[in-house]
């Protein structure tokens, strides 16, 4: 995996950034969590690509708060002004 930023999808709206940080910290050091309010996804940044890969492998498809998580590497922001990271 090239980057250390992950897309995390299929979240319930009640999941907090703190819960995500606690979950992902089991696989390395979490440097940032960006929970998109009113949407069922977030972006989690790990301290290294190796830690991000480890978290992705462990958590993609796993159940969290009653839902199967979708974890994938986040794409860099679009250059045409769309802003923000996006998922693959």
Q: What features would you describe in this structure?
A:
With 88 residues, the chain is of the alpha+beta class. It has one domain (5-72): Alpha-Beta Plaits (2-Layer Sandwich). The chain has two helices and seven strands. The strands form two sheets. The chain has a five-stranded antiparallel beta sheet with strand order 2-3-1-6-7, with helices on one face. The model has no long low-confidence stretch (mean pLDDT 90).
Fold topology:
Layout: E1 5-9, H1 17-24, E2 30-35, E3 41-46, H2 49-59, E4 63-64, E5 67-68, E6 70-75, E7 86-87
Antiparallel strand pairs: 1-3, 1-6, 2-3, 4-5, 6-7
Alpha carbon gyration radius = 12 Å
The coarse overall form would be: globular
CATH superfamily membership: RRM (RNA recognition motif) domain
Low-pLDDT residue spans: none
Distance between the termini: 12 Å
Strand order of the largest sheet: 2-3-1-6-7
Number of strands: 7
Order of helices and strands: EHEEHEEEE
Protein structure class: alpha+beta
Which percent band covers the strand fraction?
A: 25-35%
CATH T-level fold name: Alpha-Beta Plaits
Q: What value does the average pLDDT take?
A: 90
């Amino acid at each position: 995996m090239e980057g250390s930023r992950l897309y995390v999808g299929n979240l319930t709206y009640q999941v907090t950034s703190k819960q995500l940080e606690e979950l992902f910290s089991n696989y390395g050091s979490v440097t940032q969590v960006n929970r998109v309010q009113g949407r069922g996804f977030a972006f989690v940044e790990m301290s290294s690509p190796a830690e991000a890969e480890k978290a992705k492998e462990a958590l993609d498809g796993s159940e969290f708060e009653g839902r199967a998580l979708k974890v994938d590497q986040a794409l860099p922001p679009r250059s045409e002004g769309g802003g923000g990271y996006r998922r693959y």
